[in-house]
Amino acid sequence: MSQPTPEKKVLTRQDYASGQSVRWCPGCGDFAILAQVQKTLAALNVPREKTVFVSGIGCSSRFPYYMNTYGFHSIHGRAPAIATGVKLANPDLNVWVVTGDGDGLAIGGNHLNHTLRRNLNLKILLFNNRIYGLTKGQYSPTSEKGKVTKSSPHGTIETPVNALRFALAAEATFVARAVDTDLESFSATLERAARHNGVSFIEIYQNCVVFNDGAFYAVEDRATREDALLRLEQGKPLIFGKNKDRGIRRKDGKAEVVSFEPGKPPADLLVHDERALADYQYMLTQLEPPDFPTPVGVFRSVEAQTYEALMEDQFQAAQKPGADDLEKLLAGADTWTID
Amino acid sequence: MSTQAKEGKSGKNPPSRKPVSEIDAVTIRFAGDSGDGVQLTGSQFTSTTASAGNDLSTLPDYPAEIRAPAGTLAGVSGFQIQFSSKEVLTPGDRPQVLVAFNPAALKVNLKALEPGGIIIANTDTFKPANLQKAAYEKNPLEDGSLSGYRVIPIEMNTLTDRALAELQLPPKQVERCKNFFALGLMYWMYERSLTPTEHWIRAKFKKDPKLVEANLRALQAGHAFAETTEIFEHHYRVRKAPIRPGRYRNITGNEAAALGLVAAAKRAGRELFYGSYPITPASEILQVLSGLKAQRVKVFQAEDEIAAVCSTIGASFAGALAATGTSGPGLALKSEALGLAVIAELPLVVVNVQRGGPSTGLPTKTEQSDLLQIAFGRNGESPLIILAAATPADCFDMTMEACRLAVKYMTPVCLLSDGYLANGSEPWRIPKLEELPAFETASIPESASFAPYRRDPKTLSRPWVAPGTAGYEHRIGGLEKQDVTGFVSYDPDNHQHMTQQRAEKIARAASDIPPTKIVGKDSGKLLVVGWGSTYGMITSAVQELQAAGESVSSVHLRHIHPLPPDLGGILKRFERVLIPELNLGQLQMILRSQYMLPVEGLHKVKGQPFSVNEIRERIIEILRSKKG
Predict the structure, then answer these.
(1) Chain A residue closest to B247 (CA)?
(2) What is the tens place of the pLDDT at every residue in B174-209?
(3) Which is it for strands B235-237 and B20-22: parallel, antiparallel or unpaired?
(4) pLDDT (average), residues B290-306
(5) Are residues B36 and B161 in the same domain?
(6) Is there a contact between A114 and B303 if contact means CB atoms under 8 Å apart?
(7) How many domains does chain B divide into?
(8) Which among A267, B9, B402, B461 is least surrounded, fewest beta carbons within 10 Å?
(9) What whole-number distance in Å separates Cα of residue A309 and Cα of residue A121?
(10) In chain B, which residue's Cα lies nearest the Cα of A55?
(11) What is the pLDDT of residue A304?
(12) Inter-chain residue contact A335 with B313, CB threshold 8 Å
């Protein structure tokens, strides 16, 4: 995905729509995500035949059926492993993984962890709605502690997993967050992810209208969004608010919100750095409502050799004339002849 | 016929002055601490014996622990070899010669030794501490308890120490050379040349000339000791066996499976992808393949068994020849993904190297108890092709067969091997490329008429079109698919149709199975049916009894699902049918339900292969009893 090959024909969003009727609940955040992904691929002019969407199980995992690319709707939690096989078999393909908070962080947590640390050039979209939707309303690994659901009638007693901290701990080379309805920044983040040469992980806040409506109300609603979101921009201070009158700084090792007169930010605001030490990014993941705005955008983006490039290097290093001679290989080191 | 020593394997030892007695076959077992270099000694003896022109079969026996406490019964490692001037089908029931490096090795292996057999014991280790670790109250070499055997006591440590004195090596290094002393001794006993092992030592320790010298001296000292000492009265001659002309190597089942995958990929014209997670006794396949970078073998060591099989499914979707290897507990973890491969109709090969179960069971021991798991251990109607290899070298042919059927029928194929085949070895005639089978896949239509589930009318397999191919973009998955189009479908009639189509496709693979070979007459009193690694023991027992005039024949199944189309007819031509298996009757259950015949079983689950004798005795029992 790092070097999308331009096709002669200019592609539009419609070129990426498979024509199968989309079966998510009316008002589901997945529609917005599907549209953004289709638009982004069209904008990047990625050839459809070189694109593969792999998913697991859950509402989000129906995604590949709606993309007019190659696609594989697999089994619960295993999409990263299947995508790994696809990518290694043909590193030329643009491989996307679509997963959810249950699929990616519960049943598939192990695969996600290892896939992130290996740094294959895979694009992983984790739709986080903090609920199990397809099974109709049980709590998920990202449900807030105390949440009442069908399987936690007295409230959950589990500490939720933070998807971005999970990805950072696995040392993923590209870690980002987006909100389904916050189209402009979502689109920019998707494009960055697509261009990143390595594993890209985007947590997408996605509203489940049926089982967890309003989970991200503050960051989704136009009226409250700008006060609730902290938009991360490389090299820029952490400033937020409709009037751009608040910022984040560190005091005594802790993050705090500081208010100021618009246009006159204090000098000690933190400046966003995607390549900073992990403790900075870890701090960002701890900024949560109600005390803090929710950061969105690219948390971390660093360069590292991909798994598939290292594999190819080893192949190249082993190439010598006759080294791939099959009969020689079958014979091994010790042979004898009977005649 | 003659053997021509190649690749530096020629060489003559100094002529011996002692008499020679000729024998047809001999079985030797080397046994000692897992740190004693028993496996190395065994494999050196094997390659020297192979190059001397004998037919042979070997079986290592490892403890599950990597290094159990030295000198204990749990830490005993063994290596058995049978070699002969005739065809060899098994590593031998009971050794005639036991080389025991310590008391524990003697204790563990004595009951296997043939009455009157030879015990070559390293007396330096038969000291109170070691005797106690082996739970001996008295020294068995001295208390008369071994009077039924011929004991040859040798101070291996002392003699090795003496031979290496000039080199002034640390005692630990000297001690490590004693297995070469023993090897030299055994080479003298069976008129083997020292040269192949001398070459091996020079190559192995080339970075350390002192170690080369030390091991060479130990080897030569063992040989010279046997020639000069009065303990050895004569040596034994095992003449060359009549072996099909060709170029040979020794090969284990796991090596053969790995090479079979590489050869299959070459024949299929595809890259090989192998996704696996280390598990005993299948890990060597992963290890062998991971070294083959020049062949561009794409090896992925996954985070677990599930990711391993899922990565192969992804690689298969993307057009690679994809395989995974595992053993029983790993196969259990792969079940759900295999179901996905069944419904997605993607080719992939699972080499399942069976071991003792259930659960962790006996990881280093052999068993044939995964047959019903692979046949039925998935949700839904989920048929796939099941094959079984009969011998270590057959793992090569059957791995290729598994790959050939997988791509022809667009299905997962499981090849059942087991611990016995995986680690056992035998001489293998190295095939020429043109002798290897050809591969075929369903043709790909023009993109306008392409549909992911439009089946080949003959094989019922669907077209295999990999991502990257413009104009064929399609989606597959684990939800039931509409016939032809591959769209998600919940239609009741479509599900019934697709379920039956998947079953019928696998059933049609029966037409690829060659006629069943019958060892002996094609009708009679008793037919012995085997599968997998029991081949050598069953065939040996049956042939011996045929030579004695008994009405018994055998067939050995290499295709288990679907079964060979001619099998039902064959079974019905015999009055009784016996199935010896290393389980509690798994093939027996399948054949009973398939043919509604009262086939009988012989069941063993001791983590060890059958002996020829166990099978022979059961056959005689049946032949002598009245039916019913």
Answers:
(1) A337
(2) 999 999 999 999 999 999 999 999 999 999 999 999
(3) parallel
(4) 97
(5) yes
(6) yes
(7) 4
(8) A267
(9) 9
(10) B477
(11) 98
(12) no
pTM assigned to the model: 0.92
Same domain, B48 and B91: yes
The closest of B144, B153, B184, B163 to B48, measured between CA atoms, is B184
Please give the Cα distance from A329 to B430 (Å, whole number). Answer: 10
Per the domain annotation, does B571 fall within a domain? yes
Q: Are residues B340 and B276 part of one domain?
A: yes
Determine, for residues B340 and A75 on separate chains, whether the beta-carbon distance falls below 8 Å. yes
**Same-domain status, B402 and B470:** no
Are residue B103 and residue B208 in the same domain, yes or no?
Answer: yes
- Give the separation between CA A178 and CA B539, rounded to whole angstroms: 67
Burial classification of residue A195, based on how many CB atoms lie within 10 Å of its CB (0-12 exposed, 13-18 middle, 19 or more buried): middle
From B400, B435, B470, the end of a domain falls on B435
Closest-CA residue of A relative to B452 is A70
Q: Where are the domains of chain A?
A: 13-215+305-313
Number of inter-chain CB pairs under 8 A, A vs B: 223
| Closest Cα in chain A to B267 | A326
Contacts of B317 in chain A (CB under 8 A): 72, 82, 85-86, 89
Among B158, B152, B157, B155, CA closest to B230 = B152
Residue B476 β-bridge partners: A72
Give the other-Cβ count within 10 Å of A337's Cβ: 17
Q: Tell me how close the Cα of B297 comes to any Cα of chain A, in angstroms.
A: 9
Chain A contacts of B303, Cβ < 8 Å?
81, 110-111, 113-114
Residue B2 is assigned to a structural domain of this protein: no
Amino acid at B347: P
Q: Which domain holds residue B143?
A: 20-237
| pLDDT surpasses 90 at B3 | no
CA distance B112 to chain A (A): 31
All residues of chain A having their beta carbon less than 8 Å from the beta carbon of residue B336 are 75
Residue type, A291: D
Question: Rounded to the nearest 5°, which phi and psi values hold at B470?
Answer: -70, 140
Residues B391 and B480 in one domain: no
* A76: closest CA of chain B, how far (Å): 10
- pLDDT at position B563 is 98
Residue numbers in A near B379 (CB within 8 A): none
| Cross-strand partners of B326 | B352
Look up the CATH number of the domain holding residue B554.
Answer: 3.40.50.920
Tally of CA atoms within 13 A in the half-sphere of A139 that contains its CB? 20
Contact A336 B4 (CB under 8 A): yes
Torsion angle, CA of B542/B546/B550/B554, rounded to 10 degrees?
A: 40
Residues B470 and B580 reside in one and the same domain: no
A5 pLDDT band, cuts 50/70/90, is low
Query: Are B161 and B62 part of one and the same domain?
Result: yes
Measured distance CA(B298)–CA(B289) in Å, rounded: 8
Mutate: best of B200, B259, B473, B480, partner A, most A CBs <10 A: B473
Fold of A13-215+305-313: Rossmann fold (3.40.50)
Q: Which of B209, B237, B265 is the last residue of a domain?
A: B237
| Cα end-to-end distance, chain A, whole Å | 57
Asked if residue B1 is part of any domain, the answer here is no
pLDDT for residue B110 is more than 60: yes
Instruction: Provide the percentage of residues in chain A whose pLDDT is more than 70.
Output: 97
Minimum CA–CA partner of B259 in chain A? A330
Q: Provide the token pair at B441.
A: 């896949």
- For B244, nearest residue in chain A (alpha carbons): A338
Neighbour-count burial for B330-346, b at 16+ CB within 10 Å, e otherwise: bbbbbbbbbbbbbbbbb
Closest CA to B122 of B58, B177, B61: B177
Count the Cβ atoms, other than its own, within 10 Å of residue A136. Answer: 11
List CB contacts (< 8 A) between A334 and chain B. 7, 9, 47, 51, 196, 249-250
Chain B partners within 8 Å of A7 (Cβ): none
Interface mutation vs chain B, best among A50, A320, A334, most B CBs within 10 Å: A334
